[in-house]
């Protein structure tokens, strides 16, 4: 498994800082994150030395290397899966004694088995089973009525099988479909004007959205069909009216994780070390899903960039006002919010040209509110002394974008509503937290 150093050019840095980046930035960040996953996988193997599962872990690593030589795309598809980064990082930390959770490096065998299935690589692999469930990352899971803790995966030109205890489950030719005893990770696909997005609806993996509550049950076929309809409508909107967002969404995202909706609203999330995965509650309309992509792709890009370039100084405990949060935020959190709301403002900046009536007023109001809120957060960061030199250049560049947008006219009614909403948020925040820093 070869690695290379990823050096971000000034051109891409400033394109990302301005709020975009497009396909070139998405490709660069995707490649850098894949190298990160490879390093973490090698780290699992190396840190497992002395662990009872060290031999099996090393054998799984070598099997991955052999499969990569035969079919590199199969290994890529597994190791790029968002939850691989979460699992591998947690495992390395546990093996190094930096986490109290048990270290389970033998999970590497499941990655090798999933790659073997994708490649049709002939082998037999033992992988862990937990409470009768055998998970194959990026593909799905086999479900058994047994407490055995080791499953045997047989792969080759013929359909793969999973055997646990006395029961064998045969995977379908397309493992993203269901079969007796097998629950595939369902695919959501949308295409419009020749542009395509292909995502996995992840309602299975325990690591699918760390730090966020997730929907605990597996979605029914009717629920999956609704998500497919939402994606198709949102994708058509993005392709027709928001080309850069569409390109960056297709270029960075791999999984959607359903989240429970808060009362009377919608929520979304992006988790560190889970590049390519976002969580969101079922959207009420295409606008909501499309703007969620605009929002969360910004988080995805910035989180990946932060693996390459430190933009904020170490946290000194200082907390700041964020015009979209009820609680004070550290500088790093404020930067995430500024960048995400730059994306939200950019969505409404273009979308307002395609609306009429009350919907147009709402779009103008959203544009004005979030461009002004993001600009305020950026000023706070520039005055904070919390930015590194690259971080200051980054925020100055995104401020130029916001300053340009603030010269664009907004109807009086929408401007007034946006100003009132921002002022009310600030007042409510002060009542809850004290004076704004």
Helices and strands, with pairings:
Elements lengths: L9 H8 L4 H26 L6 H17 L1 H8 L2 H14 L12 H12 L3 E6 L4 E4 L3 E4 L6 E6 L5 E4 L2 E4 L11 E3 L1 E7 L2 E7 L19 H21 L1 H10 L2 E5 L8 E3 L6 E5 L4 H21 L24 H21 L5 H26 L6 H18 L5 H22 L4
Structural class: alpha+beta
Helix content range: 40-55%
Low-confidence stretches: none
Instruction: Provide the residue-averaged pLDDT.
Output: 96
* CA(first)-CA(last) distance: 48 Å
Widest β-sheet, arrangement of strands: 8-9-10-12-11
Radius of gyration: 23 Å
Query: How would a textbook summarize the main sheet?
Result: 5 strands, mixed
Query: Which overall shape is indicated by the principal axes computed on the Cα atoms?
Result: globular
Number of beta-strand segments = 12
Following the backbone from N to C, one meets helices and strands in this order, namely HHHHHHEEEEEEEEEHHEEEHHHHH
* DSSP summary: helix tally: 13
Task: Count structural domains.
Answer: 2
């Amino acid at each position: 498994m070869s690695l290379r150093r990823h050096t971000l050019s000034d051109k891409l840095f400033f394109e990302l800082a301005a709020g975009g980046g497009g396909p070139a930035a998405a490709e660069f960040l995707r490649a850098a994150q894949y190298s990160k996953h490879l390093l973490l996988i090698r780290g699992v193997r190396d840190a497992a030395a002395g662990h009872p599962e060290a031999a099996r872990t090393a054998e799984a690593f070598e099997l991955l290397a052999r499969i990569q030589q035969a079919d590199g795309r199969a290994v890529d598809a597994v190791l790029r899966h968002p939850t691989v980064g979460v699992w591998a990082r947690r495992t390395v930390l546990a093996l190094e004694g930096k986490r109290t959770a048990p270290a389970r490096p033998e999970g590497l065998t499941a990655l090798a088995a999933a790659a073997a299935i994708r490649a049709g690589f002939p082998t037999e692999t033992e992988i862990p089973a937990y409470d009768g469930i055998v998970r194959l990352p990026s593909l799905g899971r086999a479900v058994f009525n047994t407490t055995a803790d080791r499953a045997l995966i047989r792969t080759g030109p013929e359909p793969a099988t999973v055997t646990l205890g006395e029961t064998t489950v045969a995977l379908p030719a397309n493992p993203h479909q269901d079969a007796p005893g097998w629950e595939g990770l369902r695919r959501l696909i949308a295409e419009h004007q020749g542009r395509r997005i292909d995502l996995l609806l992840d309602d299975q993996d325990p690591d699918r959205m760390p730090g966020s509550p997730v929907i605990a049950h597996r979605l029914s076929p009717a629920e999956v069909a609704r998500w497919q309809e939402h994606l198709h409508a949102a994708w058509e909107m993005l392709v027709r009216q928001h080309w850069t967002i569409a390109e960056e969404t297709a270029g960075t995202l791999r999984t959607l994780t359903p989240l429970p909706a808060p009362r009377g609203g919608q929520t979304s999330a992006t988790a560190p070390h889970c590049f390519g995965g976002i969580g969101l509650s079922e959207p009420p309309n295409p606008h909501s899903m499309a703007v969620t992509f605009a929002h969360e792709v910004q988080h995805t890009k910035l989180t990946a960039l932060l693996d390459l370039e430190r933009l904020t100084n170490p946290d000194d405990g200082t907390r700041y006002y964020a015009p979209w949060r009820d609680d004070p935020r550290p500088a790093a959190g404020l930067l995430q919010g500024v960048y995400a709301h730059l994306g939200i403002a950019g969505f409404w900046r273009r979308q307002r040209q395609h609306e009429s009536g009350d919907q147009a007023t709402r779009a103008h109001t959203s544009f004005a509110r979030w461009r002004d809120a993001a600009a305020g957060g950026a000023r706070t960061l520039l005055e904070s002394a919390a930015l590194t030199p690259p971080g200051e250049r980054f925020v100055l560049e995104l401020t130029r974008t916001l300053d340009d947008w603030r010269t664009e006219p907004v109807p009086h009614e929408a401007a007034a509503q946006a100003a009132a909403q921002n002022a009310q948020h600030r007042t409510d925040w002060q009542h809850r937290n004290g004076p704004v820093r």
